[in-house]
Amino acid sequence: MPPKAKIHKQDILDKAYELARTKGISGVNARAIAKELNCSVQPIFRNFATMDELKMELVKKMLDTYHAYVKIDETKEKPYMQMGMGYIHFAKEEPELYKILFMSEQKLAPEQFVMLDETYKNIEKYADVTKKLDSLHRMNAKQINDFHTRVWIFTHGLATLVATRTCDFTDEQLEELLEEEVMAIRSLDKYSKKNED
User: Fold this and answer.
1) Which domain holds residue 146?
2) Which of 14, 54, 154, 169 is positioned for an S-S bond with 173, CB 3.0–4.6 A?
3) Structure pTM?
4) CA pair distance 126, 80, nearest whole angstrom
């Protein structure tokens, strides 16, 4: 009888990821993963000390997927719009992953939640992109943080409507809504001139 194929750590993580994509985080448990891999739960706990450890690795894998959607390409027209649309496309195409990452209980202030996102930690990058919205006005780091938080709150609302299938928007409608909201926020007096940090 041939030896049973060894179950590797990556195999387990890949199956957990697929379960998360289709069933949400509640569908990710040792028994479900073992069933998908046609094995006992033993290989899972040989590779991961606990399910919490596995889920931490799983979140990293989900974030890699998310970051690919919102990566800024400054060679494209309207890179800031592209980032917002990427966020919404992630919600539309990966609704269960979106719910796990962005619709779970956190109890954080909006700006804290935004700053948890690795894509926003390089504020200079966002400063460059944000300033391209209107070359006549320049914002300092505090203004950029506040501006991005306001835009993100609106974008998150649209993405949530899309992820939950509450509303069905076309890309054209989404782009129009985002552009109008960015312009409305940008026109506020607090962003019209550069203040001291």
Assistant:
1) 73-191
2) 169
3) 0.81
4) 8
